[in-house]
Protein backbone atom coordinates (compact mmCIF):
# COMPACT_ATOMS: atom_id res chain seq x y z
CA UNK A 1 0.00 0.00 0.00
CA UNK A 2 1.22 3.53 -0.74
CA UNK A 3 -0.95 5.89 1.35
CA UNK A 4 -0.44 8.56 -1.35
CA UNK A 5 -0.25 12.12 -0.13
CA UNK A 6 -3.20 14.06 -1.61
CA UNK A 7 -2.31 16.73 -4.19
CA UNK A 8 -4.56 19.49 -2.90
CA UNK A 9 -4.81 18.95 0.82
CA UNK A 10 -7.24 21.13 2.73
CA UNK A 11 -5.45 22.76 5.64
CA UNK A 12 -6.39 24.63 8.75
CA UNK A 13 -4.68 28.02 8.74
CA UNK A 14 -1.17 28.33 10.19
CA UNK A 15 -2.50 30.84 12.71
CA UNK A 16 -5.04 28.34 14.06
CA UNK A 17 -2.39 25.62 14.41
CA UNK A 18 0.02 28.04 16.11
CA UNK A 19 -2.71 29.00 18.59
CA UNK A 20 -3.45 25.32 19.40
CA UNK A 21 0.24 24.50 19.73
CA UNK A 22 0.83 27.10 22.45
CA UNK A 23 -0.67 24.60 24.90
CA UNK A 24 -2.00 21.52 23.08
CA UNK A 25 -2.52 19.36 26.19
CA UNK A 26 -2.51 15.62 25.47
CA UNK A 27 -4.74 14.03 22.83
CA UNK A 28 -7.21 16.92 22.68
CA UNK A 29 -6.57 18.29 19.18
CA UNK A 30 -6.12 16.32 15.98
CA UNK A 31 -4.36 17.18 12.75
CA UNK A 32 -5.94 17.78 9.32
CA UNK A 33 -5.64 14.19 8.10
CA UNK A 34 -5.80 10.52 8.99
CA UNK A 35 -4.63 7.33 7.30
CA UNK A 36 -7.13 4.54 6.59
CA UNK A 37 -7.02 1.07 5.06
CA UNK A 38 -9.41 -1.88 4.88
CA UNK A 39 -8.93 -5.62 5.20
CA UNK A 40 -11.17 -8.39 3.87
CA UNK A 41 -10.75 -11.77 2.17
CA UNK A 42 -8.71 -10.04 -0.56
CA UNK A 43 -6.18 -8.75 2.00
CA UNK A 44 -5.24 -5.14 2.83
CA UNK A 45 -6.41 -2.50 0.34
CA UNK A 46 -8.11 0.90 -0.05
CA UNK A 47 -5.21 2.70 1.64
CA UNK A 48 -5.76 6.46 1.75
CA UNK A 49 -4.92 9.71 3.50
CA UNK A 50 -8.13 11.67 3.97
CA UNK A 51 -9.34 14.69 5.98
CA UNK A 52 -9.67 13.86 9.70
CA UNK A 53 -13.23 13.05 10.63
CA UNK A 54 -15.82 10.65 11.99
CA UNK A 55 -15.80 7.03 10.81
CA UNK A 56 -19.27 5.66 10.05
CA UNK A 57 -19.67 2.26 11.73
CA UNK A 58 -22.50 -0.23 11.79
CA UNK A 59 -23.82 -0.76 15.35
CA UNK A 60 -23.30 -4.49 14.83
CA UNK A 61 -19.59 -3.86 14.19
CA UNK A 62 -17.68 -6.55 16.08
CA UNK A 63 -15.35 -4.17 17.94
CA UNK A 64 -18.32 -2.65 19.83
CA UNK A 65 -19.27 -6.02 21.24
CA UNK A 66 -16.12 -8.11 21.56
CA UNK A 67 -13.35 -5.48 21.80
CA UNK A 68 -11.18 -6.93 19.03
CA UNK A 69 -8.88 -3.91 18.83
CA UNK A 70 -5.18 -3.02 19.08
CA UNK A 71 -3.24 0.22 19.00
CA UNK A 72 0.18 1.84 18.98
CA UNK A 73 1.66 5.13 20.14
CA UNK A 74 4.73 6.91 18.85
CA UNK A 75 5.90 10.48 18.43
CA UNK A 76 7.33 12.85 15.81
CA UNK A 77 9.80 15.40 17.18
CA UNK A 78 10.79 18.77 15.71
CA UNK A 79 14.50 19.44 15.97
CA UNK A 80 16.05 22.88 16.32
CA UNK A 81 16.75 23.11 12.56
CA UNK A 82 13.03 22.57 11.82
CA UNK A 83 13.39 18.95 10.64
CA UNK A 84 10.90 16.30 11.85
CA UNK A 85 11.92 12.86 13.13
CA UNK A 86 10.27 9.65 14.35
CA UNK A 87 11.71 7.61 17.23
CA UNK A 88 12.19 3.86 16.56
CA UNK A 89 9.02 3.50 14.41
CA UNK A 90 10.04 -0.02 13.27
CA UNK A 91 9.69 -1.21 16.86
CA UNK A 92 6.08 -0.04 16.89
CA UNK A 93 5.43 -1.72 13.52
CA UNK A 94 6.72 -5.04 14.82
CA UNK A 95 4.82 -4.75 18.09
CA UNK A 96 1.64 -3.94 16.14
CA UNK A 97 2.06 -7.24 14.28
CA UNK A 98 2.61 -9.11 17.55
CA UNK A 99 -0.49 -7.52 19.09
CA UNK A 100 -2.52 -8.38 15.99
CA UNK A 101 -1.58 -12.07 16.23
CA UNK A 102 -2.62 -12.27 19.89
CA UNK A 103 -5.98 -10.64 19.17
CA UNK A 104 -6.69 -12.78 16.08
CA UNK A 105 -6.47 -9.70 13.84
CA UNK A 106 -4.68 -9.68 10.46
CA UNK A 107 -1.10 -8.43 10.62
CA UNK A 108 -0.46 -5.12 8.92
CA UNK A 109 2.87 -5.65 7.10
CA UNK A 110 5.71 -3.60 8.60
CA UNK A 111 6.21 -1.58 5.40
CA UNK A 112 2.53 -0.62 5.27
CA UNK A 113 2.60 0.52 8.90
CA UNK A 114 5.73 2.55 8.15
CA UNK A 115 4.30 4.14 4.99
CA UNK A 116 1.07 5.17 6.72
CA UNK A 117 2.86 6.72 9.68
CA UNK A 118 5.62 8.41 7.68
CA UNK A 119 3.24 9.85 5.08
CA UNK A 120 0.80 11.13 7.69
CA UNK A 121 3.66 12.79 9.57
CA UNK A 122 4.96 14.33 6.31
CA UNK A 123 1.52 15.53 5.22
CA UNK A 124 0.72 17.09 8.60
CA UNK A 125 4.30 18.12 9.47
CA UNK A 126 3.10 21.68 10.02
CA UNK A 127 1.35 20.37 13.12
CA UNK A 128 4.54 19.11 14.81
CA UNK A 129 5.01 21.67 17.59
CA UNK A 130 8.48 23.00 18.33
CA UNK A 131 8.23 23.96 22.00
CA UNK A 132 9.92 22.39 25.00
CA UNK A 133 8.65 18.81 25.65
CA UNK A 134 6.23 19.11 22.72
CA UNK A 135 5.76 16.58 19.92
CA UNK A 136 3.20 15.10 17.53
CA UNK A 137 1.70 11.92 18.99
CA UNK A 138 0.78 9.34 16.33
CA UNK A 139 -1.90 6.80 17.17
CA UNK A 140 -2.18 3.83 14.74
CA UNK A 141 -5.00 1.42 15.58
CA UNK A 142 -6.85 -1.51 14.08
CA UNK A 143 -10.31 -2.85 14.80
CA UNK A 144 -12.78 -5.54 13.78
CA UNK A 145 -15.57 -3.84 11.83
CA UNK A 146 -17.51 -6.80 10.48
CA UNK A 147 -21.25 -6.41 11.11
CA UNK A 148 -21.88 -9.74 12.77
CA UNK A 149 -22.78 -10.70 16.32
CA UNK A 150 -21.50 -14.27 16.16
CA UNK A 151 -18.42 -14.81 18.30
CA UNK A 152 -15.34 -15.42 16.17
CA UNK A 153 -12.46 -13.41 14.75
CA UNK A 154 -13.90 -10.80 12.36
CA UNK A 155 -13.35 -11.17 8.62
CA UNK A 156 -13.31 -7.45 7.89
CA UNK A 157 -11.01 -5.10 9.72
CA UNK A 158 -10.12 -1.44 9.54
CA UNK A 159 -6.76 0.23 10.08
CA UNK A 160 -6.50 3.89 10.97
CA UNK A 161 -3.79 6.30 12.10
CA UNK A 162 -4.54 9.70 13.63
CA UNK A 163 -2.17 12.36 14.98
CA UNK A 164 -2.36 14.82 17.86
CA UNK A 165 -0.01 17.64 18.89
CA UNK A 166 0.93 17.15 22.55
CA UNK A 167 2.76 18.84 25.40
CA UNK A 168 3.97 17.26 28.64
CA UNK A 169 1.76 14.28 29.64
CA UNK A 170 1.46 15.12 33.32
CA UNK A 171 0.40 18.65 34.20
CA UNK A 172 3.00 18.53 36.95
CA UNK A 173 5.81 18.07 34.38
CA UNK A 174 8.56 15.91 35.87
CA UNK A 175 7.46 16.36 39.48
CA UNK A 176 7.40 12.98 41.28
CA UNK A 177 3.94 11.40 41.49
CA UNK A 178 2.50 9.01 44.09
CA UNK A 179 1.43 5.58 42.89
CA UNK A 180 -1.25 3.31 44.36
CA UNK A 181 -0.26 -0.37 44.39
CA UNK A 182 -3.18 -2.63 43.40
CA UNK A 183 -3.43 -6.13 44.88
CA UNK A 184 -7.12 -6.96 44.53
CA UNK A 185 -7.62 -6.33 40.81
CA UNK A 186 -5.57 -7.28 37.74
CA UNK A 187 -5.26 -5.60 34.38
CA UNK A 188 -4.27 -8.81 32.62
CA UNK A 189 -4.57 -12.50 33.43
CA UNK A 190 -1.73 -15.00 33.52
CA UNK A 191 -1.36 -16.10 29.86
CA UNK A 192 -3.84 -13.39 28.91
CA UNK A 193 -3.30 -10.41 26.64
CA UNK A 194 -0.63 -8.60 28.66
CA UNK A 195 1.94 -8.65 25.85
CA UNK A 196 -0.56 -7.17 23.35
CA UNK A 197 -1.22 -3.45 23.19
CA UNK A 198 -5.00 -3.64 23.16
CA UNK A 199 -7.84 -1.46 24.36
CA UNK A 200 -9.26 -4.27 26.47
CA UNK A 201 -6.26 -4.19 28.82
CA UNK A 202 -6.86 -0.50 29.36
CA UNK A 203 -10.58 -0.99 30.01
CA UNK A 204 -9.66 -3.60 32.62
CA UNK A 205 -7.31 -1.14 34.34
CA UNK A 206 -9.63 1.85 34.63
CA UNK A 207 -11.53 0.92 37.80
CA UNK A 208 -8.28 0.34 39.67
CA UNK A 209 -7.16 3.72 38.36
CA UNK A 210 -10.26 5.32 39.87
CA UNK A 211 -9.53 3.68 43.22
CA UNK A 212 -5.96 4.98 43.08
CA UNK A 213 -7.22 8.43 42.24
CA UNK A 214 -9.49 8.40 45.31
CA UNK A 215 -6.41 7.56 47.37
CA UNK A 216 -4.68 10.66 46.03
CA UNK A 217 -2.53 8.84 43.48
CA UNK A 218 -2.40 9.74 39.80
CA UNK A 219 -1.51 6.23 38.62
CA UNK A 220 -1.63 2.62 39.84
CA UNK A 221 0.95 -0.17 39.81
CA UNK A 222 -0.34 -3.67 39.10
CA UNK A 223 1.02 -6.88 40.58
CA UNK A 224 0.92 -10.37 39.07
CA UNK A 225 -2.58 -11.79 38.63
CA UNK A 226 -1.80 -15.17 40.23
CA UNK A 227 -0.50 -14.22 43.69
CA UNK A 228 -0.06 -10.44 43.65
CA UNK A 229 3.50 -11.02 44.79
CA UNK A 230 5.47 -9.59 41.87
CA UNK A 231 5.43 -6.11 40.44
CA UNK A 232 4.32 -5.93 36.81
CA UNK A 233 3.57 -2.48 35.41
CA UNK A 234 1.31 0.54 35.51
CA UNK A 235 -1.87 0.79 33.44
CA UNK A 236 0.09 2.09 30.46
CA UNK A 237 3.70 2.45 31.57
CA UNK A 238 6.56 0.14 32.49
CA UNK A 239 8.09 0.11 35.98
CA UNK A 240 11.76 0.57 36.90
CA UNK A 241 13.87 0.86 40.04
CA UNK A 242 17.43 2.06 40.61
CA UNK A 243 19.27 0.19 43.36
CA UNK A 244 22.06 1.31 45.69
CA UNK A 245 24.33 -1.02 43.67
CA UNK A 246 23.60 1.10 40.59
CA UNK A 247 21.46 -1.49 38.88
CA UNK A 248 18.59 -0.39 36.66
CA UNK A 249 16.02 -3.12 37.28
CA UNK A 250 12.72 -3.75 35.49
CA UNK A 251 10.37 -6.76 35.41
CA UNK A 252 11.28 -9.27 32.69
CA UNK A 253 8.96 -9.69 29.69
CA UNK A 254 7.08 -12.68 31.14
CA UNK A 255 4.13 -12.43 28.77
CA UNK A 256 2.10 -10.24 31.12
CA UNK A 257 4.21 -7.10 30.70
CA UNK A 258 4.06 -4.92 27.61
CA UNK A 259 7.39 -4.65 25.76
CA UNK A 260 7.73 -0.85 25.91
CA UNK A 261 9.96 0.89 23.40
CA UNK A 262 10.87 3.41 26.10
CA UNK A 263 11.68 0.51 28.46
CA UNK A 264 13.98 -1.06 25.88
CA UNK A 265 15.65 2.28 25.13
CA UNK A 266 16.39 3.02 28.79
CA UNK A 267 17.93 -0.43 29.25
CA UNK A 268 20.18 0.34 26.27
CA UNK A 269 21.15 3.76 27.65
CA UNK A 270 21.83 2.48 31.19
CA UNK A 271 25.54 1.57 30.80
CA UNK A 272 26.42 5.06 29.53
CA UNK A 273 25.03 6.43 32.81
CA UNK A 274 26.94 3.96 34.99
CA UNK A 275 23.93 1.67 35.51
CA UNK A 276 23.77 -2.09 34.96
CA UNK A 277 20.55 -3.06 33.16
CA UNK A 278 18.73 -6.01 34.75
CA UNK A 279 15.48 -7.69 33.65
CA UNK A 280 14.09 -10.10 36.25
CA UNK A 281 11.03 -10.79 38.39
CA UNK A 282 10.75 -8.17 41.15
CA UNK A 283 8.88 -8.98 44.35
CA UNK A 284 6.69 -6.19 45.69
CA UNK A 285 8.15 -6.88 49.16
CA UNK A 286 11.64 -6.30 47.75
CA UNK A 287 10.61 -2.88 46.44
CA UNK A 288 8.96 -1.88 49.73
CA UNK A 289 11.82 -3.11 51.91
CA UNK A 290 14.38 -1.62 49.53
CA UNK A 291 12.75 1.79 49.60
CA UNK A 292 12.57 1.68 53.41
CA UNK A 293 16.19 0.51 53.87
CA UNK A 294 17.75 2.54 51.06
CA UNK A 295 18.72 -0.50 48.95
CA UNK A 296 16.28 0.85 46.37
CA UNK A 297 17.13 4.48 45.67
CA UNK A 298 14.70 5.47 42.95
CA UNK A 299 11.55 4.21 41.26
CA UNK A 300 9.97 5.50 38.08
CA UNK A 301 7.54 4.73 35.28
CA UNK A 302 8.12 5.12 31.55
CA UNK A 303 6.26 5.15 28.26
CA UNK A 304 6.11 7.14 25.03
CA UNK A 305 3.45 9.55 26.26
CA UNK A 306 5.07 10.63 29.54
CA UNK A 307 8.68 9.58 28.65
CA UNK A 308 9.99 9.01 32.21
CA UNK A 309 7.99 9.93 35.30
CA UNK A 310 9.69 9.84 38.72
CA UNK A 311 7.66 8.14 41.47
CA UNK A 312 7.67 9.92 44.83
CA UNK A 313 6.00 7.18 46.86
CA UNK A 314 4.36 3.76 46.53
CA UNK A 315 1.23 3.46 48.64
CA UNK A 316 -1.24 0.77 49.60
CA UNK A 317 -3.70 0.07 52.43
CA UNK A 318 -0.80 -0.78 54.75
CA UNK A 319 1.30 2.30 54.32
CA UNK A 320 3.59 4.51 52.28
CA UNK A 321 7.10 3.81 50.99
CA UNK A 322 8.96 6.95 50.01
CA UNK A 323 11.55 7.29 47.26
CA UNK A 324 13.71 10.20 48.28
CA UNK A 325 16.01 10.39 45.26
CA UNK A 326 15.39 10.93 41.56
CA UNK A 327 18.85 11.84 40.23
CA UNK A 328 19.41 8.81 37.96
CA UNK A 329 15.77 8.87 36.86
CA UNK A 330 16.16 12.45 35.67
CA UNK A 331 19.52 11.68 34.02
CA UNK A 332 17.95 8.80 32.08
CA UNK A 333 15.05 11.02 31.08
CA UNK A 334 17.40 13.76 29.91
CA UNK A 335 19.58 11.33 27.95
CA UNK A 336 16.57 9.91 26.10
CA UNK A 337 14.95 13.30 25.46
CA UNK A 338 18.25 14.70 24.17
CA UNK A 339 18.35 11.98 21.51
CA UNK A 340 14.66 12.36 20.65
CA UNK A 341 14.83 16.14 20.25
CA UNK A 342 18.17 15.98 18.42
CA UNK A 343 20.24 17.66 21.13
CA UNK A 344 22.61 14.69 21.46
CA UNK A 345 24.24 12.17 19.12
CA UNK A 346 22.12 9.14 18.21
CA UNK A 347 24.53 6.20 18.72
CA UNK A 348 21.84 3.54 18.24
CA UNK A 349 20.39 5.06 15.03
CA UNK A 350 16.99 5.36 16.67
CA UNK A 351 15.85 8.49 14.86
CA UNK A 352 14.30 8.47 11.39
CA UNK A 353 13.89 11.73 9.49
CA UNK A 354 10.49 12.26 7.83
CA UNK A 355 10.40 15.98 6.99
C1 LIG B 1 2.22 1.38 25.47
C2 LIG B 1 2.41 0.76 26.80
C3 LIG B 1 3.61 0.91 27.53
C4 LIG B 1 4.74 1.79 27.08
O1 LIG B 1 5.28 1.42 25.85
P1 LIG B 1 6.13 2.46 25.01
O2 LIG B 1 6.46 1.73 23.76
O3 LIG B 1 7.31 2.79 25.81
O4 LIG B 1 5.25 3.64 24.79
C5 LIG B 1 3.73 0.24 28.73
N1 LIG B 1 2.73 -0.53 29.21
C6 LIG B 1 1.56 -0.68 28.56
C7 LIG B 1 0.50 -1.52 29.15
C8 LIG B 1 1.37 -0.05 27.33
O5 LIG B 1 0.21 -0.20 26.69
Short summary of the structure?
The chain has 8 helices and 17 strands. The chain has 355 residues and is α+β, with helices and mostly antiparallel strands. The protein binds pyridoxal-5'-phosphate.
Rg over CA atoms: 21 Å
Give the structural class.
alpha+beta
**Oligomeric organization of the protein chains:** single chain
Largest sheet: 9 strands, mixed
**Whole-Å distance between the termini?**
20 Å
- Unreliable segments of 5+ consecutive residues: none
Number of helices: 8
What spatial form do the alpha-carbon principal axes imply?
A: globular
The proportion of strand residues reads 25-35%
> How many E-type strands?
17
Question: What level of helicity do the residues show?
Answer: 25-40%
Helix-strand pattern:
HEEHEEEHHEEEHEEEEHEHEEEHE
Overall pLDDT confidence = 96
Q: Which molecules other than protein and nucleic acid are bound? A: pyridoxal-5'-phosphate
Amino acid sequence: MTFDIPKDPTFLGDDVIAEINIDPGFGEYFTDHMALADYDETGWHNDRLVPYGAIPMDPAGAVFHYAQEIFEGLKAYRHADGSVWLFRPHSNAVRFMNSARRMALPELPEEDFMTSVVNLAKLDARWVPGGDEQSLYLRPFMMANESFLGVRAAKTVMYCCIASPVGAYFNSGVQPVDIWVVQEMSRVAQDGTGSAKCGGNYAASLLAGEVGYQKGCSQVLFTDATNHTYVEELGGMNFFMVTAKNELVTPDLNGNVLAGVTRDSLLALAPSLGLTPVERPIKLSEVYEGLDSGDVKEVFACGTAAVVGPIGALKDENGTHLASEHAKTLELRQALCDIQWGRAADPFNWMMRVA
